[in-house]
Structures are given as structure tokens and as C-alpha cells.
Write a sequence for this structure.
């Protein structure tokens, strides 16, 4: 079965190691280096759980890089591989290891694959925007060996990935509502502890693709988790026409929610398209990026812009 998607924008051959984004290093990391980055203990690896710049795309690249490195270093054929978490990183790693003939098993504490993003219609995701203004950042499509997707709302991306996943999923045991509480390594094998007390025979490798969990809610009435649908940009139905909101934080999520609250019929995709193609924004972004790579602090750059 051919899972490689055709790509409208470029027809470059993608090696399984996609080094550029993995750690923002200009030097191609060797497999030993990748394994060192991700190894927690003998046979136990994490997929970016502690990394910076976690995005859909970079997590998928980490998954490919890690699987490629394991294959090169130890060989994966017939190895028992457990994967904890069926987010994008877990599914991508599982598919890659399966196609390299490993015996893969997936464990997920929720009841479904991609439980965070599935069905989401409010969060628009672009695969390369986090590397803007670097070359290639405007491409609205991923360049992966498979599980590719276009810029879209998170739920649509999940649907696209699951469509591809479903082509192989029957061959991979997946266990849901299974929370792993401990992973340990002994005599070259990896053992998993389950919250429900059940057990599985030991594995050759275990990949922890558990993400960084849900945000802590401030109170029972606070806004839902980032990937849940909300009605921030819908007209108010209550009698009192103006509701008061407090947006905490200054990251991209907080800024976007502020815009959604303030601009009627706001369309995230339109803003992204416009920004990515606007020469003024592009030159400013390049200027900021150059200043930061020349050692200037964010604070100095901020002042330079008269902010
Ligand atoms: C607030 C917020 C905003 C974000 N915005 C963006 C954005 O705009 N664009 C973008 O590209 N990325 C964004 N991200 C990052 C994005 O969510 C992740 O890159 C993406 O979810 C893929 O990550 P993952 O597969 O590593 O982890 P997750 O998607 O978190 O999946 C981890 C899976 O592991 C399961 N799990 C966890 N612990 C256990 C356990 N002990 N046992 C069994 N299963 C377990 C979870 O239930 C979950 O299904 C954002 C993240 C957050 C939190």
C-alpha cells in the first residue's frame, strides 16, 4: 500500500529524516544524536514531550526522525514497539514503525485517536507558519513521507490524517482507555505499568508520545481547553449584548482569542494568508528574525519597533 501523498507544491524527495525543523540546527543531526535527544532510559524514548516549538508538523517530523534513527541503529523488523499516546506524534511514529516491519502496539488513555483535535472547527492550523519568515514557511502543506495535510481547522486535519491511518490501522493493535502509569527498563526490555493493573509482555522499545496534557482550568466555569469548540466569535445571544472577557497570556492563542472577540466574522485563515503574503510584514519579520539571530534581545527589538 502506498501511503505517500502527492504534493501540489513541490515534488522533492523527502528523506525519512527531516532534520531542519527538529531542533533548529543547521547541521544535519546524526542518528546517535537524535537517539540521545529522545532517550529517557535504555529502550525508552519520548517524542518531543520536553521540546520547545511543539507543533503538529514538528511533532510528526520528530516521530519520523526517531523511528528512522531506531531503524538505522538497531533495526526494527520484528521488534516489539509500544507507543504511548495516539496524538499526531504517536500515530505517525506507529505508522512509520509498522511500515518498517516492527510489531507495534498503541496505548491511549482517552477513548479515541487524536482525541484533542478531532471535531474541532475553531482552530485553524498552518503547517509551516511557525518558521515564518524562513523559506518554505508559506507552503500550506506538509512534506512528510506520509500523513500529509493542508492548512485547515484542526478537526479537518485530524480527519485527513485518520483517513490515511485507517488504511493500516487494522494491522496495529490499539488499546483505548489505557493509562500508562510507569515505564521502566530492565535487562534490555521495557516494561509498562497500567493504571488498571493489567499487564503486557515486555517490549524492545517504548515511545512516549504523551504530549503535554490539558491546560489546568482556573475554575469550573473557565473557558474550555484550547482544542474544544467554543463560541467566542459568534454573536451574543444573551439579553445583555456585551459580555466581559478576561484574556490571560500573550501567546498566539491569547492574541487570536482577543481578535476573535473583537472582530465580527473574523476568519483566521484569511489573516494568515494575508500576513504571509504581505511584503511589509515579511520584511519586518525578516528584520526581527535577523536581529534576534545577531544576539539582540526580544526586549531590544520590541523597543526598536517603538512598542
Ligand atoms: C494550547 C495549545 C495550543 C497549541 N496550538 C498549536 C497550533 O496552533 N499549531 C500547532 O501546530 N500546534 C499547536 N499546539 C501543539 C499541538 O497540540 C501538538 O503538537 C499536537 O497535539 C501533537 O502533539 P502530540 O501527539 O505530541 O501530543 P497530543 O496531541 O497531546 O497527544 C498525546 C496523547 O497521549 C495521550 N496520553 C497522555 N498521557 C497518557 C498516558 N499516561 N497513557 C496513555 N495515553 C496518554 C493523550 O490522551 C493524547 O491522546 C498547541 C498545543 C497547546 C496545548
Amino acid at each position: 500500500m502506498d501511503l505517500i501523498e502527492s504534493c501540489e507544491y513541490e515534488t522533492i524527495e523527502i528523506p525519512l529524516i527531516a532534520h531542519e525543523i527538529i531542533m533548529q540546527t543547521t547541521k544535519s543531526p546524526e542518528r546517535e544524536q537524535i537517539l540521545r535527544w529522545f532517550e529517557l532510559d535504555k529502550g525508552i524514548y519520548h517524542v518531543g514531550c520536553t521540546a520547545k516549538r511543539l507543533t503538529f508538523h514538528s511533532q510528526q517530523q520528530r516521530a519520523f526522525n526517531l523511528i528512522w534513527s531506531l531503524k538505522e541503529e538497531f533495526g526494527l523488523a520484528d521488534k516489539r514497539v509500544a507507543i504511548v499516546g495516539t496524538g499526531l506524534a504517536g500515530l505517525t511514529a506507529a505508522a512509520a514503525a509498522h511500515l518498517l516491519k516492527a510489531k507495534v502496539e498503541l496505548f491511549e488513555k482517552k477513548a479515541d485517536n487524536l482525541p484533542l483535535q478531532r471535531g474541532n472547527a475553531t482552530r485553524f492550523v498552518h503547517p509551516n507558519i511557525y518558521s515564518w519568515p524562513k523559506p518554505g514557511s508559506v507552503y500550506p502543506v506538509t512534506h512528510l513521507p506520509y500523513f500529509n495535510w493542508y492548512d485547515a481547522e484542526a478537526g479537518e486535519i485530524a480527519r485527513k490524517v485518520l483517513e490515511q491511518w485507517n488504511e493500516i490501522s487494522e494491522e496495529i493493535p490499539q488499546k483505548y482507555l489505557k493509562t500508562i502509569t510507569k515505564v521502566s527498563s530492565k535487562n534490555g526490555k521495557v516494561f509498562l505499568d497500567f493504571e488498571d493493573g493489567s499487564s503486557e509482555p515486555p517490549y524492545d522499545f517504548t515511545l512516549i508520545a504523551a504530549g503535554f496534557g490539558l491546560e489546568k482550568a482556573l475554575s469550573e466555569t473557565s473557558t474550555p481547553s484550547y482544542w474544544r469548540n467554543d463560541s467566542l466569535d459568534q454573536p451574543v445571544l444573551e439579553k445583555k449584548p456585551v459580555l466581559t472577557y478576561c484574556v490571560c497570556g500573550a501567546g498566539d492563542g491569547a492574541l487570536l482569542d482577543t481578535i476573535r472577540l473583537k472582530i465580527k466574522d473574523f476568519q483566521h485563515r484569511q489573516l494568515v494568508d494575508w500576513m504571509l503574503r504581505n511584503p511589509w510584514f515579511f520584511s519586518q519579520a525578516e528584520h526581527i528574525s535577523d536581529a534576534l539571530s545577531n544576539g539582540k534581545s526580544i526586549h531590544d527589538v520590541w523597543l526598536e519597533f517603538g512598542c
